[in-house]
Amino acid sequence: MAHSSFQRGDQVEVCSKLEGFLGSYYEATVVANMGTNYVIQYNNLVEEFNDAVPLKETVKAAEVRPLPQEIREANNNGAGFHSVFFEYTGQELEYPVLKLRVHQDWRNGKWVSSKKAKRTVVR
């Protein structure tokens, strides 16, 4: 469900629809609310031909969600790596534990904890 009230300056996540990145979310800042679309500026992505310029693009409102709450596993000391399975590509990759958070789903306008056993699934 899309959140319809993001305004300029709000911190959000944007879902990628690009092949190879499908279902990945990237942090961004709302530059403009255009009703059914948002102009966003990514926090960690840059223009293809000028890596000094943050990437801006117009995305559909349905591709934007608020930043999730930061929740970490209580029994994890932050050391080591964790295996992450990407459902769309079938890849399983290792990521530093400190770069991961507990999986949550954005459903009906709120974050819902999703307890996945054994491995983290990215959709």
What distinguishing features does this structure have?
123 residues; mainly beta; five-stranded antiparallel β-sheet; three-stranded mixed β-sheet; 10 strands; globular
List the helices and strands and how they pair.
Elements: E1 11-15, E2 25-33, E3 37-47, E4 50-60, E5 64-66, E6 81-86, E7 91-96, E8 104-107, E9 110-113, E10 120-122
Parallel strand pairs: 6-10
Antiparallel strand pairs: 1-2, 1-5, 2-3, 3-4, 6-7, 8-9
Describe the structure.
With 123 residues, this protein is mainly beta. Helices cover 0% and strands 50% of the residues. The protein contains no helices and ten strands. The protein has strands spanning 11-15, 25-33, 37-47, 50-60, 64-66, 81-86, 91-96, 104-107, 110-113, 120-122. The strands form three sheets. It has a five-stranded antiparallel β-sheet with strand order 4-3-2-1-5, with no helix packed on it. Strands 7-6-10 form a three-stranded mixed β-sheet, with no helix packed on it. Strand 3 and strand 4 form a beta hairpin. The protein is globular and about 40 Å long. The model has no long low-confidence stretch (mean pLDDT 80).
